[in-house]
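Because discrete structure vocabularies remain unfamiliar, it helps to consider an illustrative case, giving the amino acid sequence and backbone structure tokens:
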Amino acid sequence: MRDALAIVGGGPAGMMAAIRAAEMLGDGRRVVLFDKNDRLGRKIYLTGKGRCNLTNRRSWEEFAPHIHPNQGFLKNAFRAFSNEDVIRFFEEELGVPTVTQQGQRVYPASLVAGDVARALERRVQELGVDVRRGVTVASLAELADFGAVIIATGGKSYPITGSTGDGYRFAEEAGHTVTPIFPSETALLPRDYDPGLPGLEMKNVGLHLYIDRTLVESEQGDFNFTGDGLESGIAYHLSRRAVRALCNGQRVDIVLDLKPALTEAQIKTRLGREEQAGGIRSREHFSASGTNARAAKPGRQSIRSFLPEQLIDPFLRANPDLTVENLPQRLKAWPFRIIDYKGFERAVVTAGGVSLKEIVPKTMASRLRPGLYFCGEVLDLDGDTGGYNLQIAFSTGSLAGISAAKYLL
């Protein structure tokens, strides 16, 4: 077995590593792929809401800022197997046509995640890789007879798919440092969460993240209010820093800008036009005489011109002192004090992991143990939602597979 490679984990990174290693070695039987599940790529079936966001077509300069915490570490792997390479691989080698949608996100044309998982598994089988499903590797010591080992076990997110953190234990067994792990791309729960908010989809809004009352990040786009809090889209983009801050005991606030395309002055101008047209009505039916119109409560009709109907009541409950005068400011800054987050059982990605300082970025090899390699989510490397995390898996998995095969040769 000293001329064979063991890969632990049959997810996107592990399957890509197996494919590249088998191609390099010219004998798939020298590659043994262990996976604790009864089928490979189980987590792929859940990605992209079941559609599988394969990658993102942005250039490296636009792609890199979406990688955390060290975008430079990924640079070699990305250049060796880029987003365009991934697209060609699936289309030309695996026969999976792709489609590019909003935000440069790439999906299988069928929009069926299972097509991606099954295509990768078919290629693994075509190359003759020795796939051992339903097998749990308990320690690195069990793999001592192999000439090289790749750890591609994923993180701890969605543990029902088999991602239970085994790779961190293997890394520590080999003497590696594992940085603190925490959920990323997960729901953020506000204090006093209004029961009227879950189920609302927010389109083209702004979110501003404050940590200890200091603005640290802003995003514009879409997100959803769900039963677990602020989730998906731009809320996911902010969740990494928000969760880390909560873990550190810091105060976290998110401020919702309902009209990012308008300034407060522009909103006031629109309200003024409606006031002149008789559009502002007090909810308490103030008479025009003896009432300061600017201090009056705006009627639903005026608010409806800025908000969808189902959002009006939660907005009014959050702003009991709402007036015509302060309405523009409240539309631009609806604060949510974040007190909790959804854990690994719902998080899309695990942040933290095997320290990048102990991995050679040009090969994915351990700096501490010859013949040991790491790839995918087990590394302290993650990306924003939008295809970045699967690209990390494919790029690092490809490089690890090629490097391990070269080591054996």
